[in-house]
Queue: 2 jobs
Job 1
Amino acid sequence: MAMQWLERELRRTGNPQDTLNADLIATMLKHRGKDIPMPQVAVAKEATPVEVRRFTKEAKEALRDQGFAVYELTAQSIASVRDSGRKFWSTWHRDNPQFEALTSMHSEVAINPAKLFLPKSNNKTLVQQEDLIARFSEDLGTRIQGVEAIMGEVPDYVDLAFTHLNATRNYLFGEKDGYNYARTKTPTVGSSVANVGSFDPAIGLRVDVWSRDDGYGGVFAAPLVVPKA
């Protein structure tokens, strides 16, 4: 208790003035009949670290043997990537802070930079492209155990593009890839979903929108390989 603690600490000093003050506190305690509780100090709880999903050693080796690059995504968003100094040449999403705050998955992800897009997956609807990725996933699973392929969300492809750039100095969705786009599952407005691509070294990465019910020549299915759930 606060007053008892203060009385005790004053007596410990051996100072005559402190002893007199301790006697005063003792008298106050006697008249009051009870002590004053010590203030409770809130102890901040450490945030529980989010576990990153990882490939098995065998799966990672098999992926790399087949031309895949493995990266770790760690909850990056359009906003956090831009705040780190990276460029986006699309600006419409600045007016949608919730969209810009969406974060990438906590997971290792594999892509084949030489085969970023599934062949003939452009000019197709979202559903058709998801079906192509499901078939790709099934085939890949027969060759490499413990993995699956998915269509990611906007922040997954954004995080991946800049992570790959950091690792290789090469631009996914850039000139080598025809400045084409990866379709994502992330809704924007109406029936549209977001696309990520057209990565230009001078002006940055672009996030665009396209109707989920329409295909387009520059919008492809770009599967992300992840540890199987």
Job 2
Amino acid sequence: MPEWLSIVSFIIGLCGSILGIFGFTAYINERMKHKAAKRNQAEDAAEQELENMRQEQYLNSLRTVIKEENEPLLRDIAEIKQNLSLNTKGTVTILRNDMKKSLDFCKHQGFATASDKANWKELYNTYGELGGNHFKEYVDVWKKEMEELPLSKDKAKTKKKVLAE
């Protein structure tokens, strides 16, 4: 083989070897980068999971503290609600009693003034708004009786005369 051909084939072989070494090195570098990226992702995921666990523990401990601190307030609120319920029941009873007394008084005198009727209507409305419907059939009859009472003493006398005739 001629010497120039040996030199050319040597140079071509040397270039191929150098290119092969560079290619293999580049491949190894990319492979290492890929593995490092996967490892970093796994580490980041583990750190994120750990941070989430810490955050959840912190929130749970805060919730526990808040619950413990709020227990007296919740007991007080429950007691206030119970007292308010009892107060409402008492108020409803008093309103019903006042409506009955007012109706009886007006029936006894034979008439009701406009202010008596207005006051009775307000008592009736408040009674209903507070949930007073235990004696609804009686109270509704009372309401009708109050509305049918004459407005003044003169009208009451006229009504008695008409009834007497």
